[in-house]
Amino acid sequence: MTTTLANLSLEQFSQTCANRLTTIFTQYIAEIPSLELKSAMTYTLLDGGKRLRPLLIYATGLIFNASIENLDVPASAIELIHTYSLIHDDLPCMDDANLRRGKASCHKKYGEGLAVLTGDALHTLAMQLIAAHPAPLSAEKRVQMMKVVSLACGPYGMAAGQALDITLLQQGDISSDLLLDIYRLKTGALFTACIELGRLSSKDDNEMNQRALKTFGDCIGLAFQIQDDVLDIESSTEQLGKPQGIDIKNNKVTYPTLFGLEKAKDKIQTLYQEGLEAINYLGDRAQLLRELTGKMLGI
What we know:
- The chain is 72% helix and 1% strand.
- The chain contains 16 helices and 2 strands.
- It has helices at 3-6, 10-29, 35-45, 52-63, 68-89, 106-110, 112-132, 139-153, 158-168, 176-200, 207-234, 237-240, 246-249, 255-259, 261-278, 287-296, and strands spanning 99-100, 103-104.
- A hairpin with a 2-residue loop joins β1 (99-100) and β2 (103-104).
């Protein structure tokens, strides 16, 4: 990792990394032969979004002195995966949301058919980037990254969580354990993958680091989903950039509906502290990662 990135403030770090992602996405989108698909991908990918998941990758890689070129690969792929998931989540057959990132959802702007294809294209492009985007990553590392991403977003991760979401979360008698399991799959798995991808971008092969970072990622991912539940109740549509109260509209069971807002907020704090304890031994090297996650969770 270059010293210029390592010495930046959190705000400067975030902007620098976001600019790198924009450059990479613009390069790939420029070559798309379908003008409508190109337009929809540009609309959903380049205009809005906090880039939180790729920032977790960059911040974790910084701990282990990963090169920024190596980090660009999984960071770009994860943002593509995340954006595709939002497009599909917003469809009428899923959450039926008409607003995303402060503007009309992809299906409202381009129609449902093109929205599905845009999500498909972003998902596939993520795998292309891991396999072939220029970076001094070995073939073995690329395969490891593809395995991590596939497990996190496929039938053992996000897709399974979303399937459980649309089939079970409208049942009022759902247990808290099952709710948290769904959260770990639909949201937490991708966060944990981000932390591991940052480490994989470096030369680190320490199993203790891998276990500690997994614990950290698990805690932060779960906390983030509960925080999202809280914001859906307390924030406005303008603040969220998406419809406020969508969970209530869809009659979904959430952590706050089971335990109340105060206990939900307490759980976020508890999970955050557990995550910090897991990486405490990393000392100052992990300070940027701590600051980033604290800001993400509003702590």
